[in-house]
Amino acid sequence: MKKTRYRANATEINKAPGHIRYLWVIQFKASGYRAATPTVAMTYQTLDRVDPNYVEVLRVVDLSKDKVLTLAPERLEELKSAWRENYFNPEWDIV
């Protein structure tokens, strides 16, 4: 029996998953070179470019449950790693 694979490989992280469940909304800290303009990420590659040192507010929109979660910016690296492992798993919940 073949095991279901949820982890995105190096090529797949450049694309949005087939079922988009989460939108990552990042509010940056205002600094001399960057405005505090929010950014929305739908792919791992976009989220991976975010430097957690400049994140003021991290929100995740769960499109399946119609919820908005506000998370600690310190959790960004942990969440990126968990999301990559579950990139193609529409049942994965952010805890």
Q: Would you summarize the structure shown here?
A:
The chain is α+β, with helices and mostly antiparallel strands and 95 residues long. It has helices at residues 44-48, 76-85, and strands at residues 22-28, 39-41, 55-62, 67-71.
Secondary structure: elements and pairs:
Blueprint lengths: L21 E7 L10 E3 L2 H5 L6 E8 L4 E5 L4 H10 L10
Give a verbal description of the structure:
This protein starts with 21 loop residues before the first strand and ends in a 10-residue tail after the last helix. The protein is an alpha+beta fold and 95 residues long. The protein contains two helices and four strands. The chain has a four-stranded antiparallel β-sheet. The protein is globular and about 55 Å long. It has helices spanning 44-48, 76-85; strands spanning 22-28, 39-41, 55-62, 67-71.
Q: What is the 3D form?
A: globular
Distance between the termini: 29 Å
What percentage of residues falls in helices of 4 or more residues?
A: 10-25%
Largest beta sheet, briefly? 4 strands, antiparallel
> How many DSSP H or I helices?
2
Oligomerization state: single chain
The sequence of SSEs as H and E is EEHEEH
DSSP E strands, number: 4
Poorly predicted spans: none
Q: Strand order of the main beta sheet, please?
A: 2-1-3-4
Q: Which structural category do the helix and sheet elements fall into?
A: alpha+beta
| Radius of gyration, CA atoms, in whole angstroms | 14 Å
- The amount of beta strand, in percent, is 15-25%
Mean pLDDT: 88
